[in-house]
Amino acid sequence: MAILELRELHRLIAGWPGLVADADPALVEDSLVLLDFLQDARSLVDVGSGGGLPGLPLKLARPELRLTLVEANRKKAAFLTHACAILGLEDVEVLAARAEDAGRDPRLRDSFDAATARALASLPVVVELCLPFVRPGGRLLAMKTAGAEEAERAMPAITALNAELLDVRPAPSTARSLGTVVVIRKLGPTPDAYPRRAGVPLRKPLGM
To answer: For strand 43-47 and strand 112-118, is the pairing parallel, antiparallel, or unpaired?
Structure first.
């Protein structure tokens, strides 16, 4: 485990004004609960990456991962580019774009082994924003607290995005004692209708 690099990542996050509301180092460690869920994934997209959580800690722990960080806020995207340079990370792409737009890019659509999201939105919204990036057979790993309740509300979105709910598993950490990971498997290509245009998933979540 790249302990020194993880500490350096926390230092970078804490020192960048306006990046996160809470710079607790436990948030970096919290991201690592996903390691057991990645299995043999070789490519990962972190949607709404913000300060690079969970994508950057996972890349530090699994250097062979091909990582794409999607972040609409250009100041936060600039931080991600800066952090990757300071940490010397290779095979990382930072996209300063909305997930709704990036998810329709033929280069990115239906192409990743796994997608992650933390503190992005409610689960029905996360499903619509993240699953278009995932290849058939790949997985969405959504970090949540009230995982079971959200998973039930997200079932219409999961079905609409050609996927199935695999598991809602407790994954506590120092930062989130009630943390869970919702695991959703992509069954086939993303239907042409999704994701809807920018802003619509958040305003009108599927099934709600």
So the answer is: parallel
Query: pLDDT digit string (tens) for 139-185?
Result: 999 999 876 788 999 999 999 999 999 999 988 887 777 789 999 99
Distance of CA 58 to the CA centre of its chain: 11
Interatomic CA distance for residues 194 and 199, integer angstroms: 13
> 170: which strand partners?
180
Beta pairing, strands 92-95 & 66-70 = parallel
Contacts of 71 (CB under 8 A, 6+ apart): 48, 49, 50, 77, 80, 94, 95, 96
Contacts of 85 (CB under 8 A, 6+ apart): none
